[in-house]
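Recall from the previous lesson that a structure prediction takes nothing but the amino acid sequence as input. Here we apply that procedure to Nucleoid-associated protein from Halomonas shengliensis. The sequence below is the only information supplied.
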Amino acid sequence: MPILNAIVHRIEKAGEAPARLLPASAPLPASDALEAMLEALTRAYHAKSKAWGHFADTAMEADAAQGEDDTGRSPLAAEIGDYLAEQRDFVALTRPLAERLARLLDDHLSASGDLLVLDTRFGGARFLTLALLHHREGFAIDDALQPVPTRQLNLTQMSLAARLDVSQWQAGDSRQYLSWTRERGGKALAEGFAALLGAVEGVDAPGETRTLLKAFSDYVEKEDLAEDASREKTETLVDYASDQASRGEPITLEELSELLDEQQPRAFYEHIRNADYGLSPEIPPDRKTLNRFKRFTGRAGGVSISFDSHLLGSSVEYDEAGDRLIIKQVPKQLKEQLKSGS
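The prediction returns the following tokens.
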């Protein structure tokens, strides 16, 4: 992943004292260490819980973002636009951002950190990534084979980070080109960070992922698939969605449909469109929702049962004391078979 520009600004924050910015005067030189750190940072970022959306670009959205300038646009979006048009250099782009982030720390977070900002290119796409990195105390072994204390970057504690897909933003055909971390337990901090970015949430990743899984469950039921086929398609969906999540890329409905059925590559896609689930063509996957999705299956005494885990407690109930499984919504095809066989 070629690095076009990279810089680190340090923000020192101790107790109740105001945050102090130690700005860099020039971008970082290229190095193998920087490339390796980018790879580790990317993996850590993809594993984070995130919001997805876009820069505020209307007066109403700007009011919601609370980070607008007099034009109703995100200040950061305007600054990045100047940088891409070569009207502002990388230092002049990132220093105001670091100053605003220092003020955010004063209001919501008593912690020092290094603001890393990277402009990178991957294939035909371009990304701008920013992350506030914290340190932790650790140990290393020196040349004399003695343990020595050392400070290490703690990527897992990355509470403030964002990633802009510059290519999608410039193309103007997406409303989810911007993602940012949204950690639990820090609502005020998360809202302040979104305001700093001038960002508006454009898609509910957990909700969209749940709707996709519901659409898949309906599809499996409609097709009346055998247990083995149902399990295989479930694994295909989860594997594909998890892989997209690990790479920080969206689930593409048409691509998923092709993977689910090579003989009828548009079957699942048409099922979604015909039933009008309201899903976007591309969905940012939510890893936590995916991890909770599985199918319960069992076979005994000529009875075979298979259903998705999210149906337990709603359409399907398990009575442990009575050793009974209660199905509240009998599938239409099964209902017709029961009627004809009675």
